Amino acid sequence: MKFNEKTIMAIMVDNRKEEAVQVQKVLTGWGCLIKTRLGIHDGVLDSCSNYGLIILELVGEREKHEELMNKLNVLPGVQAKYLSLELEE
Hints:
Strand order of the largest sheet: 2-3-1-4
Order of helices and strands: EHEEHE
Number of helices: 2
Radius of gyration: 14 Å
């Protein structure tokens, strides 16, 4: 991995209350690839939304990132995409 390259994955979870456990299991299994994790969902207390967004900063090999994305995308109501950003020298 290049120092001037960053890989970000965005994960939308449609049925958060039911799918969060499965998503968490996948992320835990691939935890060594995850440098930073941010979870976002609308609402607070009694009015929490049932969908959420997770943003990951990944480290490691591109092939492993693709494997993680594929594992997430087979879960019902989950969509994961990633992109790699690189600064020109």
